[in-house]
Every structure is written in C-alpha cells, then in structure tokens.
Amino acid sequence: MLQGLDSVQMAHLRELTTWFLHVKAINGAHGLEVTPAMRVTVAAQACLLILNLGTDYFDNWVEVILYPGAFRVKREQTDAMGLVHSDARVLSGESWLRGPVILSWDDVERDSFQQTGSNVVLHEFAHKLDGLNGATNGQPPLRRGMSRQRWADALSAAYEALRAQVAAGESPCINPYAATNPAEFFAVLTEYFFTAPDILKDCYPEVHQQLAQFYCQPASR
Ligand SMILES: [Zn+2]
What we know:
two-stranded antiparallel sheet; alpha/beta; binds zinc ion; single chain; 6 strands
C-alpha cells in the first residue's frame, strides 16, 4: 500500500504516524494485548489518508479500540410506528461520529498486506473524514479550491449507476456494499483509491479524479 510513496512522502508519513501514536489512544478490548507493531500498523494506514490533508482532519475523537476479531453488535431502533427492532450484525469495523473507531485486528492484519480494494482501516477512518462537518453523508470538507458541486455531481452519478446495477441484479465492478448509502460509497471508494486504484479508474474515472484531488496523492494512485 505504501509502495507508491517516494522518500519524502514516506518521511512525512512516519512523522504523522508518530503524531498519531502520541495524541490518539489505541486500546485493546476482549483481552487483546496491543503490541507496538499493531499500533504502528493501524496508525500508519490511518495517516495515509491525511498524508496531504493535515492533522486537523483527525480532530474530534481520541480513541481506537481493537477487538481480537470480528465483533457482534446488537442495536435497537424504534421505527415510525413505535416498533422496536433489534438488529444483530457481525462487523470488522465501526466508526462513531465524534466517538471511537473500532476495528477487528484479524481484519486489519489481513487487509494490511493485500491489494484488493478492501481495507478496514482506510474504510473506518474515511468515515472520520466524512463526519468532520457533523454528518456522514459522503461529503467531507474538501480541500481549498475544490468544487463541492463537481464532487457531488461525480459521486452521486456513480452512486446512482451502482445502485441501478445492484437493483438489476448485475454484479458491479466494485464491492456492492458501496451501494448502501452515500457515506459507505465514499468509504468503500476510498479503499479502492488506495489499494486498487486501477479498478476505480476503470469503473468511475470522474470519482477517481475527485478522490485524487482530495487526497492529493502521487500520480501512481
Ligand atoms: Zn462503513
């Protein structure tokens, strides 16, 4: 994942990773002992997102919680009719608006060394960037000079095309989980941008161009 970086960018990533390890807590849960190597593995991948954005983009939260493996969450929601629905799911990661990022170490470890378009660290921290302006909706605060309109046009056209494909039962060129909502779309496409950029370029060239401007990454991405 770091292969496209030159020595200046690698040095900057190292600095950011050090900053991350100083200001953010990475705690184990369910008996997981968090080693220095595990901390660096999480921090370096998270900081890849903000390599050219700056540390402000990781404001508003302080904690990462690592579970040994995928974890089960149970949520109760009350619908418009007053019925309470209980929903249990198994997750590899979760990101709370202004709260912690929760990751399954099994999944972090597996995703850290493969280039497949799947990376739980990038996914969950992309939600953090997205949520900076108060809601996760696929619209992170953009860099100066970027057009919100162009961003929204490119991402919503691609999102609608993906949803239409999924609804028609076709198999899309990216993980269909991206069709869940605009926030998941942004998070999943971020995974592709960093780990399988060629798939993203082929599939959604305009989205790739917007993400390249936003993350301001080397041309090789
Ligand atoms: Zn997500």
